[in-house]
Amino acid sequence: MKKLGLLLLPILAIALMLGGNVFAQNVGDNSVYFVAYYSNANTSGAPDGTLRIINDGDFTGCTAGIAEAACDGPSLTLYADIYVFDDSQEMISCCTCPITADGLLSESVNKQLTADTFTARAEIQRGVIKVISDEAGYNLFSPNTVPGTAPGLRGWMTHIQATTNGEPAVKSGPDTSKGPWFVTETALADSNLTELEASNLGTVCSYGLASIGSGYGLCPCTPEDYDF
Fold first, then answer.
1. Theoretical Cys-Cys bridge with 55: which of 16, 99, 136, 144, CB 3.0 to 4.6 Å?
2. Lowest mean pLDDT: which of 64-78, 93-107, 153-167?
3. Strands 127-134 and 153-162
4. pLDDT of residue 17
5. Domain limits at 204?
6. C-alpha of 159 from chain center
7. pTM of the prediction?
8. Is position 16 within any domain?
9. Are strands 153-162 and 33-38 parallel, antiparallel or unpaired?
């Protein structure tokens, strides 16, 4: 402990010499694109999975080229553009949900993200979820609109893990012999968002809502004061 204290003294001295503003450094990441998976959804006996996303409160509407002194306004609302896929790489639902500064969005996998799909498919059990941190939200039904981006959202996903490998009671039905279950939670994985990927997500979402689903497939947004 004494050695640790001696090591910390020079660091503290340097920090004081620099004005003591140790914690004002911009050390956070600027990620705007996140991915996760869900499993054992809509499965008899299994608990529900949850996607949780917060707005870290750092976004003030400033973009590159604006002086830092002009970026001291109040934190603004960000939007979580959520895209849900099944295990056949097909998008089944999408939505854009507002999250105010320091707000929490919680989305149920069973009751919201996979409950209302483009093709009214039931019992979707596993797949992929993609999230874009969006500065303004966008018209999901517009085929020519590409989601905007702004850093500031952070997310976590609970995963429903089976301790045994079950077989479907009916070949076309859900697995019913899995379990018992346990739940893990991990942070959403930071990913690289290309212009092509953003365009594809926006295009497939709008096409699914307006054409394939005719309104089906729009996942609802949970109020920020409600959690599971």
1. 99
2. 64-78
3. unpaired
4. 47
5. 27-212
6. 14
7. 0.80
8. no
9. unpaired
- SS3 per residue for 141-205: CCCCCCCCCCCCEEEEEEEEEECCCCCECCCCCCECCCCCEEEEEEECEECCCCHHHHHHHHHHH
> What's the CATH number where 138 sits?
2.60.290.11
| CA count, 13 A, side-chain hemisphere, 210 | 12
Residues with Cβ < 8 Å from 123, sequence gap 6 or more? 42, 173, 174
Q: How far apart are CA 197 and CA 83, in angstroms?
A: 12
119 CB-near residues (< 8 Å, 6+ apart): 92, 212, 213, 216
**Would you say residue 15 lies in a domain?**
no
Is-cis flag, bond preceding 180, omega within 30? yes
Sign, Cα dihedral of 88, 92, 96, 102: negative
What is the rounded distance in angstroms from the CA atom of residue 126 to the CA atom of residue 128?
A: 7
Map tokens 């690289």 to a residue. Answer: 192
* pLDDT (average), residues 39-52: 94
Q: How many domains does the chain have?
A: 1
* Nearest residue to 104 via CA among 218, 210, 187, 224: 224
Assigned token pair, 216? 């089906």
Q: Is the residue at 217 inside a domain?
A: no
